[in-house]
Design goal:
Oligomer: heterodimer
Number of helices of chain B: 12
Strand content of chain A: 5-15%
Distance between the termini of chain B: 42 Å
CATH architecture of chain A: 3-Layer(aba) Sandwich
Number of domains of chain A: 1
CATH topology of chain A: Rossmann fold
Order of helices and strands of chain B: EHEHEHEHHEHEHEEEEHEEHEHEHH
Structural class of chain B: alpha/beta
Strand order of the largest sheet of chain A: 3-4-5-9-8
CATH superfamily of chain A: Thiamin diphosphate (ThDP)-binding fold, Pyr/PP domains
Number of domains of chain B: 2
Strand order of the largest sheet of chain B: 3-2-4-5-7-6-12
Order of helices and strands of chain A: EEHHHEHHHEHEEEHEHEHHHH
CATH topology of the largest domain in chain B: Rossmann fold
CATH class of chain A: Alpha Beta
Chain lengths: ~400, ~325
């Protein structure tokens, strides 16, 4: 079911149909410039009535502990990021801080279906993915603080976390620039005959970058085991989807490349994410086929913390989402109802996550900065491995 | 010793490395079925098959970026740009991703990729296809840059570049592809960062890289014949790493330096070398370091004019005489 289009392709009335087009899509082009706020009436209809993610095979077998772990991971991401925000406001974190708050169900859901042979790469809103794959808060917070104990020794910052030991390949700063890399990871897996696939994450702003389309083409052309995951939070920075992306949906662009695609409308539901991403991953594993998933979600904070977040959306919009679709609350209520969680356990998980985040801030605070000598380390493999250096001559200049 | 062309030398290097290491793969536009736009990879598809020799779509940002990702996971991709000029289409992938990935991951991730192709003018293909971006590439810490001027170096440097654990930009030259010299059969390596004194001399150091070296050698002959001037010709071979020691030793010996290159003058490799000489051998100089580059404009199409825009034996000869005044 998943890879049959889940949207019914009904658009504006057909205004141009003289029979010359092979496609079935006719659009009334929008007047330019588009200044209106996005209207919800034009969204494709979702035909998933009666779908219950809890009953999906991948979820029905989940034990209580596993469900609690999913919930705990989401809480840990949120508490970590709230602590990051405080540190940023205290001036301890420089540059940008792109918070994932509101989108936790995606990173946690996706990481929970990853096997040990699967790989993951994402953009700069990377805290959630990093925690979900098992990176520690200490090394992450220290990285934000620019400390030598950070996961990238303070050289990457919040946007550039890496942990290849957990198959986590970053953490990339340029919108869409990581998608060719993710495609390359999948290529290498296939080339080497290894099991596993790559989940390549991007935001809705990425889909208009050329490198993303080139990657789609390569992945489809060579049937690479990659799942392209668009976390569509509705805004590429401050520009709404309606004002930035043509076409009926972002995922549907995959059709042009003959790739499978689907929209996960209930991206706030960690179990729905698991189910549908799990199926796409299985397709990559079993048949080495790529796919594009668009997961609808929402971010509560600005594009980055420095973003005033008042020019392009109303507070009411944020509050409306929070009150009905908060990934943590929705899953919490569901687990309470089935008595997997208790109020006591909820409180315990929350306190523990807060304490863990607090400890990470203390760890980061207490850690030293890199030294001036560290600036030139990790530039060239050969400089860092002088015993094995084969080249001669100067690699650095004054 | 066999005499083979620059083209055959590159093919031999890539073939030997493909046979030596299962992680080496050659990718690019028209490299496989078409046998290479410039026939560098001729016969390689037939010999090594489509897994090792891969035709890509015209999609530089996509396939170069894909190569970077594959290198992160341990492949050693050799990516052919049909013209090196097309690097600009993949600029973000090369200079944000390949150059920075090791640094930004705190040394956890390597990127052993080679990006190669011809970077030269002189073939009347206009400004879009005639870029010589060695100084732009070398500007970026994390990247290595080599520019072989002859078949022997092309083979030895290519083998070293493929085995290198850092990203290497390998700039070739279509005019040199058919030039031949003695090249040993089988295994030898030319290390990156080792300049080659192509001709010893005492009166002036003509230093440079790429095809300009071939022109400089002819200019040196003229200087000897007409004025009994003994020019030393130094081929850097590698821009980054750079053999500063050989540059300084030569200049200290001759006290005069002319830097010759096909690039444009602003922020060129010659500008950097002139700066290094001024910093570290100023007291040895009898004249300012002079540079000879292409005339500072986009590459002109008009065939007779393009000849004038580029370094030539005559221009090098004149510039050397000026430096010796």
């Amino acid at each position: 079911m998943l890879f049959k289009p889940q949207v019914s392709l009904v658009f504006d009335e057909v205004t141009l149909n003289n029979g010359i087009f092979a496609s079935n899509y006719y659009f009334k082009l929008k007047a330019f410039p588009v200044t209106k706020k996005p209207s919800s009436t034009k969204k494709p209809e979702v035909t998933n009535l009666g779908y219950d993610a809890r009953q999906a095979p991948i979820n029905i077998k989940l034990g209580q502990d596993e469900k609690i772990a999913l919930y705990r991971d989401m809480v840990r991401i949120r508490r970590f990021e709230e602590r990051c925000l405080r540190s940023y406001q205290q001036g301890k974190i420089g540059g940008f801080l792109h918070l994932y708050i509101g989108q936790e169900s995606i990173a946690v859901g996706c990481a929970s279906v990853m096997g040990k042979d699967d790989h993951i790469i994402t953009a700069y809103r990377d805290h959630g993915h990093a925690l979900a794959v098992g990176m520690g808060m200490n090394e992450m917070m220290a990285e934000n603080y620019g400390k030598i104990t950070g996961c990238s020794k303070g050289k990457g910052g919040s946007m550039h976390y890496f942990d290849p030991s957990r198959n986590f390949w970053g953490g990339h700063g340029i919108v869409g620039g990581q998608i060719p890399l993710g495609t390359g990871l999948a290529y290498a897996l296939k080339y080497k005959g290894l099991k596993g696939a790559c989940m390549a994450f991007m935001g809705d702003g990425s889909v208009n970058q050329g490198a993303v389309h080139e990657s789609y083409n390569l992945a489809a052309l060579w049937s690479l085991p990659v799942v392209f995951i668009i976390e569509n939070n509705g805004y590429s920075m401050g520009t709404s989807q309606e004002r930035s992306s043509a076409g009926p949906s972002l995922a549907q662009r995959a059709e042009g490349y003959g790739m499978n695609w689907a929209i996960i409308e209930d991206g706030h539901d960690v179990l729905a994410v698991r189910d549908k991403v799990g199926q796409a991953l299985k397709l990559a594993h079993d048949k080495s086929l790529p796919s594009v998933l668009e997961i609808r979600t929402y971010r509560y904070r600005g594009h980055s913390v420095a973003d005033p977040d008042t020019t392009y959306r109303d507070k009411a919009e944020i509050e409306a989402y929070k009150s009905t679709k908060d990934p943590l609350s929705v899953f919490q209520l569901s687990l309470l109802a089935e008595q997997t969680l208790t109020d006591e356990l909820i409180q315990k998980i929350d306190e523990s996550a807060r304490a863990e985040a607090e400890t990470s801030a203390q760890f980061a605070d207490a850690s030293p900065y890199p030294s001036i000598e560290d600036i030139k380390k990790d530039v060239y493999w050969e400089i860092d491995n002088p015993a094995d250096r084969k080249s001669v001559g100067a690699l650095f200049f004054d | 010793m066999p005499v083979i062309t620059y083209r055959e030398a590159l093919r031999a290097a890539m073939s030997e490395e493909i046979e030596r290491d299962p992680n080496v793969v050659l990718m690019g536009e028209e490299v496989a079925q078409f046998n290479g736009a410039y026939k560098i990879s001729e016969g390689m598809l037939a010999k090594y098959g489509p897994k090792r020799i891969v035709d890509t779509p015209i999609s530089e940002a996509g396939f170069i970026g894909m190569g970077v990702g594959a290198a992160m996971l341990g492949l050693r991709p050799v990516m052919e740009l049909m013209f090196f000029s097309f690097y600009s289409v993949a600029f973000d992938q090369i200079f944000n991703n390949a150059a920075n990935i090791r640094y930004m991951s705190g040394g956890l991730i390597n990127c052993p990729i080679v990006i190669r192709g011809p970077a030269n003018g002189g073939t009347n293909v206009g400004a879009t296809h005639s870029h010589t971006p060695e100084s732009i590439a070398a500007y970026h810490p994390g990247i290595k840059v080599v520019v072989p001027s002859n078949a022997y170096d092309a083979k030895g440097l290519m083998k070293s570049a493929i085995r290198d654990n850092d990203p290497v930009m390998f700039l070739e030259n279509t005019i040199l592809y058919g030039e031949a010299c003695e090249v040993p059969d089988g295994e030898y390596l030319v290390p990156l960062g080792k300049a080659s004194v192509m001709r010893e001399g005492t009166d002036i150091s003509i230093i440079g890289h790429g095809r300009s070296i071939q022109l400089a050698l002819k200019a040196a002959d003229l200087l000897k014949q007409k004025h009994n001037i003994n020019a030393e010709v130094v081929d850097l071979r590698s821009i980054r790493p750079l053999d500063v020691e050989t540059i300084l030793n030569s200049v200290k010996k001759t006290s005069r330096c002319l830097y010759v290159e096909e690039s444009k003058p602003f922020c060129s490799v010659g500008a950097m070398v002139a700066c290094l000489i001024s910093d570290q051998a100023f007291d040895y100089l009898d004249a300012p370091v002079k540079r000879l580059t292409s005339i500072d404009a986009p590459a002109i199409y008009s065939p007779p004019l393009e000849k004038l825009q580029l370094p030539s034996v005559e221009r090098i000869y004149q510039a050397a005489l000026d430096t010796l005044k």
